[in-house]
Design a protein that fits this description.
Elements lengths: L28 H26 L8 H6 L1 H32 L7 E4 L9 E5 L9 H28 L2 E3 L15 H10 L6 E3 L3
Antiparallel strand pairs: 1-2, 3-4
Helix pairs in contact: 1-3, 3-4, 4-5
């Protein structure tokens, strides 16, 4: 007992305790399932749009005939791929800018909706930002990156749709109708890729 120290001082405690924060790995299963579901709903919506594009008077009472026709499937896929690429590119623009600034964010979540509820087969896409912005520059860059990325894919989709559109003749009518006009981008693209067309056109879906 005589060897036991009579006076001792405890070891100094660290001034701060650093907690280990595991890296935030974005979940991939839920976005993948929503992407697959949105692919199905937008393809079905595109097939309906394409059926109206081929023949406006076409009856769609029997959906089985629509689903088993390869031409309608191709038309539906062109619509589905176009709209999904635009939506995903838009949200990936936000996401990649978040990654650049070290801001925690989820992968894009697409929102599938059956065609009777939405004529497009989707309500769009969203991402969830899990950490705050440090300054307004980050907020501006993340906000504007999405529209710019989506716009880059809107242009080829618009050109494809115009090239495969069809002319039609508007029959005279004694009723009242409204002409809301077209967006400036559509007017410019029409004059550029359909310069000799003075008739009305039915846009390819």
């Amino acid at each position: 007992m005589s060897d036991f120290p009579q006076h001792y001082s405890p070891a100094p405690l660290p001034s701060a305790v650093e907690m280990y924060v595991p890296p935030d790995r974005p979940r991939k299963l839920v976005p993948a399932i929503l992407l697959l579901a949105s692919f199905c709903t937008t393809t079905l919506a595109g097939m309906i749009w394409y059926a109206g594009f081929v023949d406006a008077s076409l009856e769609l009472d029997n959906f089985l005939d629509l689903l088993t026709d390869p031409s309608f499937l191709v038309g539906g896929l062109s619509f589905s791929v176009s709209i999904l690429v635009i939506l995903v590119a838009h949200e990936l623009g936000h996401y990649l800018m978040c990654v650049r600034y070290g801001i925690r964010a989820t992968l894009p979540y697409l929102i599938p909706v059956p065609p009777p509820v939405s004529p497009f087969g989707t309500f769009g896409a969203v991402i969830k930002i899990k950490s705050p912005f440090e300054n307004t520059r980050q907020l501006l860059d993340v906000g504007i990156a999405g529209p710019i990325a989506g716009f880059l894919f809107i242009i080829p989709a618009l050109v494809f749709g115009l090239v495969y559109s069809r002319e039609f003749v508007v029959e005279g009518t004694s009723g009242i109708y409204f002409n809301f006009g077209e967006p400036l981008l559509l007017q410019f693209a029409s004059h550029l890729f359909l310069p000799d067309t003075n008739a009305d056109i039915t846009l390819h879906p």
